[in-house]
Amino acid sequence: MSNETLLSVKNLEVTFNTPKGDVHAVRGVSFNLGRERLGIVGESGSGKSQTGRAILGLTAANGKITADQMTFHDVDLANLSPKQWRKVRGARISMIMQDPKYSLNPVMTIGDQIIEAYREHHNVNAKEARHRAIDMLDAVKIRDPERVFNSYPHEVSGGMGQRVMIAMMLIPDPELIIADEPTSALDVTVQLQVMAILDDLVRDRGMALIFISHDLQLVSSFCDRVLVMYQGHVVEEIAASALHEAKHPYTKGLLNCLPKMDGNHADLPILEREASWAEG
Amino acid sequence: MIEINKLNAWFDDNHVLKDVDINVPKNGSFGLVGESGSGKSTVLRTITGLVDDWEGEILVNNKQLGPTRDKTFYRLAQMVFQDPFGSLHPRHTIDRILTEPVNIHGLGDSDGRVVQALEQVGLDNSFRFRYPHQLSGGQRQRVAIARALILEPKILLLDEPTSALDVSIQAEVLNLLSRLRRELGLTYIMVSHDLAVVAHMCDDIAIMNHGRIVERATASQLADGTLEHPYSQQLYKAAGGYDRAVVDSFVDWD
């Protein structure tokens, strides 16, 4: 792991203009990312997904992004034209979404979708692209890549669908992957298997990863570093291995309120929120 | 309170429950754990009469259940579903949602009952005339629990009651369910994919895979990690977070 900075975000703010007034989803988030695995953890509405989407310019039309700095290598992500974005998205930064049921095209075969992703960024003929796509399906440990290549998304299971997503997002060989709850819709064992595939590929290809999840334990067992978000702020940044030394009451509260398999049926500690946490 | 012997169920040609035996004492709390497709929810749905094609014996309160359920059954046993966004009528106020079962069963005093049910689940009266979309996920699940409680049942069938909720809200709802069981002397069957939730809530636990109970355990056995069946061991390890070496030891149970 080198110390070079891939992505630098300073004071990122995302505000949505809604009929009920402005909603301030992300309030002053700053971080630097090298070739490492960064976890972003928070509960619903904490702004973790919006942080990830803002980096890729995927904020909804009624949202406004401001940042003192948002650069990927030397590319200024804050001021890209749609044409320039197309050169970054997929090719250099790509995103794995939560549910393959909604993020894969239901009327296109899996193979065609992967080929489309590849040929968008690589000028190769159809035969070569097909070959690459099948290799990629093999790399995400799909046992019968030829069959899956010719299947439609509804014909495969959730775990298989998410492997397909990973194959599609990794085939253009991006440098940074943003995974937004990539395994939350899956069963625990399948979830870990999919994470293992992601783990191996990210390691082999030397990619950087931003792993967004609500599951603090899971993230800390997978990432190098974790940002804990609450109401749009990063309340704590902590090395994943030092999670048990978390200082912020919100992080501690999140850890404590998890049910444990210790045979103890006493009431779980309730997270008492304090207004000051939302002030950053 | 609930006794199930050799329960088998089918969806068309698909044999989804295979010889399931469950015994829950009065005021007991029984947990069913498994992954999707294991048949854990189907057990609850069969008890409440949402599955047509089944064989075996289901005794609730020492009374054998036939192919249909009558009103007395639903006064005795109520179900709480997983998704608080799907299980409440979007165009009915909380008041109407809670009043409906009272009227169906002709219990009377719907006003007093609604107030009491809201109070039991820790919602104040200001929620009474709101619509579900004006409530958070945790508040909606409280309403779903209130709707089940308003008929003063003795049994609650809980189908993943907290899986759609954030962990901090999950803790609140689990505490609420524990308190209600203590105070009202309820009997629970709780279904979850989360081993830790079930271990926390239940005294007896059954682990299901492909329609079959592969292992039974007590909460203290789970605490010690003394599970015997390889599938349950795998689930137990998976609950411990991500570990590359552990994942390599996983076997597909398809």
Characterization of the model:
The complex is a heterodimer of chains A (280) and B (254). In chain A, 34% of the residues lie in helices and 24% in strands. With 280 residues, chain A is α/β, with parallel strands linked by helices. In chain A, the strands form 2 sheets. Chain A has a 6-stranded mixed sheet, with helices on both faces. In chain A, strands 1, 2, 4, 5 and 6 form a 5-stranded antiparallel sheet that branches. Chain A is globular. Chain B is an alpha/beta fold. Chain B is 37% helix and 25% strand. Chain B has 10 helices and 10 strands. In chain B, the strands form 2 sheets. Chain B has a 6-stranded mixed sheet, with helices on both faces. A 4-stranded antiparallel sheet of chain B has the order 2-1-4-5, with helices on one face. In chain B, strand 1 and strand 2 form a beta hairpin. The mean pLDDT of chain B is 92. The A-B interface holds A 43-44, 158, 187-193, 195-196, 199, 214, 216-218, 220-222, 253-254, 257-265, 267-271 and B 35-36, 137, 166-172, 174-175, 178-179, 193-197, 199-201, 203, 219-220, 222-225, 234-235, 238-239, 241-244, 246-248, 250.
Reported CATH architecture of the largest domain in chain A? 3-Layer(aba) Sandwich
The gross shape of chain B turns out to be globular
Q: Give the integer mean of the pLDDT values of chain B.
A: 92
Question: Which structural category fits the helices and strands of chain B?
Answer: alpha/beta
Q: What is the strand content of chain A?
A: 15-25%
Name of the CATH architecture of chain B: 3-Layer(aba) Sandwich
Largest sheet of chain A: 6 strands, mixed
Helix content of chain A: 25-40%
Q: Order of strands side by side in the largest beta sheet of chain A?
A: 7-8-9-3-10-11
Distance between the termini of chain B: 34 Å
Largest interface: A-B, 36 and 41 residues
Mean pLDDT of chain A: 90
What would you give as the CATH superfamily of the largest domain in chain A?
P-loop containing nucleotide triphosphate hydrolases
Helical content of chain B (DSSP H or I, runs of 4+): 25-40%
Distance between the termini of chain A: 30 Å
User: What sort of overall outline of chain A do the alpha carbons produce when their principal axes are compared?
Assistant: globular
Number of domains of chain B: 1
CATH topology of the largest domain in chain A, which one?
Rossmann fold
Order of helices and strands of chain A: EEEHEEEHEHHHHHEHEHEEH
